[in-house]
Amino acid sequence: MAPEGAGTLNDSAAVRKQYSTAGNLSTRISIHSKYSTNKQGFGNWIVSHYDLRPGMSVLELGCGTGEMWLGKEELIRKCGKFVLSDFSEGMLEKARETLRGAGGIEYRVIDIQDIPFPEGCFDAVIANMMLYHVPDLYRGLKEVRRVLKKGGTFYCATYGENGIMEYLRGLFPAAGDAGGVNRNFTLQNGEARLLSVFGKAECLRYEDALEITDAEDMADYIYSLAGMSELRKLPREEVLAVLEGNMEDGILRVPKEYGMFIAG
Questions:
Q1: Which of 15, 132, 217, 258 is the most exposed place for a label (fewest CB within 10 A)?
Q2: Which domains does the chain have, with CATH numbers?
Q3: How far is residue 236's CA from residue 239's CA, in Å, rounded to a whole number?
């Protein structure tokens, strides 16, 4: 699961490069863990909305580092089939390492646009913070619908169009595009995208923000964003000066806009 910050990347080669290893993703995850005002944690909040009952078959697409499942071994064990997958072999290897103590997990390299499972074999499919990367989103969503059982549920988290990326664009107007927000699948348009394939879709929002006390951490976050090419060209000292200049009482307050859809 990749937090907001993917920029405008949406072609397979660029995405594969950005997520070939867990380094950049770990940088982005760490700033959320360290500075988020909502201490429940986005991953915990997401999982709290999953209705996974004993014996269910579950597929996660774009599992990232697998960190969301840490401490949830009991939930995994009660599933009849539990598959974690990612587009990146490197990321999947990191997930294996993260969850090495958990049993009952099958790991697969999978492209959502071509899911290698027969029709109607999963009770639940999960795709968090990754649908905006899919080159042919309609095809990917149709694949999800195909592998879901009748009455199955699709859970997918994403960001909104008024969060971290838009905030950074406001701070650095001289950087041009500054990465922008990938609007392929957001909280604003996700329902319409899902309803092109599914019969219903509900949007849930997660209330949160960042309160950053060390500008160096925010600079690391910025330079981890492959999509923000123009902003990453700025000298680090210039980036730090802007960030520190926008702190109030030693805190840089950054808005976040996250949530999830439940479709079926």
A1: 217
A2: 12-161+181-210+258-262 (3.40.50.150)
A3: 5
